[in-house]
Amino acid sequence: MSEPVRVLLADDEALLRGTLRLLVDATPGMTVVAEAGTGREAVTFAGTHSPDVVLMDIRMPELDGITATAAVTALPDAPRVLVLTTFDLDEYVYRALRAGASGFLLKDTPPVRLLDAIRVVAAGEALLAPSVTRRLIAEFARMPAARRAPNRLDGVTPRERDVLTLITRGLSNAEIEQHLHLSRGTVKTHIGRLMTKLAARDRAQLVIAGYESGLAER
């Protein structure tokens, strides 16, 4: 039997934390290991309780969720961070992912989808809804070219660049297979090499690398 997914709840609303705890603890294969009411507590507890996933609010006292996310993802054996917020704003989406978050959900997300998101992020995948991807593309289309980092792709092969371009546009592995006429194993190999070359922890980090290299506009 596999170990349960260990979850840290970080939100300044005690009532919401209590509701989330009941939901997570009632789900087979998951357990809440700690609750944090401030961003600073979230960073501390992430280091002491070894969660697999941190459910992180954006607006919290002491440290905001984005600053806390950056600190949590910099820890040794860092957990994945799933940002959960009421604020569906472009600036938060980009800043949270740039800080190292693996996903972004609104607090009105149905419970079943939230639990699925925890599983997805715990497995090392990224959770990027198409609406989020579209907004990120729009954001980078407005960004001056001087702020981008095309040299980040030095050492990436042409085929890996093709795969990264499609990841940046939000395509799934199955869609990439069809688009490039590649096998599932070949796509996974290219993605693994991209993660190594770009020092990306997960798919969300690959998306950010693609945006910053201008691939969203190809």
Provide an overview of this structure.
The protein is an alpha/beta fold and 218 residues long. The chain folds into two domains: 5-127, Response regulator (Rossmann fold, 3-Layer(aba) Sandwich); 146-217, Arc Repressor Mutant, subunit A (Orthogonal Bundle). Helix content is 50%, strand content 12%. It has a five-stranded parallel β-sheet, with helices on both faces. α1 (14-25) links the parallel β1 (5-10) and β2 (30-36). α2 runs parallel beside α3, α7 (158-168) packs across α9 and α7 (158-168) packs across α10 (203-212). The N and C termini lie far apart (45 Å).
Q: Brief description of this entry?
A:
The protein is built from 10 helices and 5 strands. With 218 residues, it is α/β, with parallel strands linked by helices. The chain has 2 domains: 5-127, Rossmann fold; 146-217, Arc Repressor Mutant, subunit A.
